[in-house]
Amino acid sequence: MAQENPAGFIDVHAHIAPTSFLKEVAKSHRAFGVGVAETDSGHALTFPHLPTLRAAGGSLSNTEARTQWMQEQGVTSQYMAAWLDIQGYTLPADKEGDWVRLLNEHMAQTGKDSGEAFCTIASVPLQDGERAAQELEYAVKTLGMLGTMLPSDPADIDVADPGLEPLWAAAEQLDVPVMLHGASHSKWPLVGPSFMAFSMGRTLDTSILAAKLIHSGLLDKHPKLKLVLCHGGGFLPYGIGRLDVAYRKGMEKVADLEKGGPEEYMSMLYYDTVTVNPRSLKLLLDLAGPEHIMLGSDWVWAPMSGGLLDAVDHVGLDAADRERIYRQNALELFGA
């Protein structure tokens, strides 16, 4: 049953690498083939065939600092997803599901232990669509999690592959959001320089995935699917005109879309405010409408973006639309 939320802002886009999870995998890491080093800055994980991750600790791994920040910002609810780099999507298929189950259980418990201000978003294994669907159902029905966050362009996996159809069907049936978010272990090294991975890589990948999913007819097949594009939809809102024209002229067409063209699907998607720029947010508002945009901090990276409300407060919205973005849309979409 959904609990009553106290009045205040809701932050739908935040990350955590739970301390309890990191401590447990430090004891059992050999069973997963993952290296774990305990450093002064926290636990540094090394997944097979990948560089060692930066250490996870402090405000990324606990809720103390973010609780103070939330109070200062007027945020009364935060929806936490796992730091995508520890989701385990590069593990062997026979290890990935067990790793994700362990992560989700620690995520859910961390949220419960941290108080009513915190809800959690699940991870799912991506190498098996059926298992992904099963894990989402378990996370929602048993652990009380609100939905799932997927890496947009994980190494060696195409999230637009038809094999993930059971996951989309499960998310629609469960009526929970699927959030798309860039991650470090991606195909970006094949596209651009490493020094642009944060700014470009983790937004371009979501833009491309969303376009592929629209082109595939996914939203025709699952019209009630709640897809959320993090970072304000990346480059998709800006480039949707070219995508739409290319489809309508037959230059880029893999399926016949019921709505006639990709641009018609923009208002079916949901977005957060992590554009870090009010002009970008204005364009997004024009395309999607305030009913489809929610407040996000991208914690623990929030301080890099300035004030939480900066972009929203400078686009000329009336009080009703600000309330939608600050709170109401999140309550309706996530059912928290």
Describe the structure.
With 336 residues, this protein is α/β, with parallel strands linked by helices. It has a single domain (9-18, 61-334), classed as Metal-dependent hydrolases (TIM Barrel, Alpha-Beta Barrel), CATH 3.20.20.140. Helices cover 39% and strands 14% of the residues. It is built from ten helices and ten strands. It has helices spanning 19-32, 64-73, 93-114, 129-141, 165-174, 197-215, 218-221, 236-248, 278-288, 319-334, and strands spanning 9-16, 35-39, 42-46, 75-82, 118-121, 148-151, 177-181, 226-229, 270-272, 293-294. Strands 6-7-8-9-10 form a five-stranded parallel sheet. A three-stranded parallel sheet has the order 1-4-5. It has a two-stranded antiparallel sheet with strand order 2-3. Helix 9 (278-288) links the parallel strand 9 (270-272) and strand 10 (293-294). The protein starts with 8 loop residues before the first strand and ends with a helix. The mean pLDDT is 92.
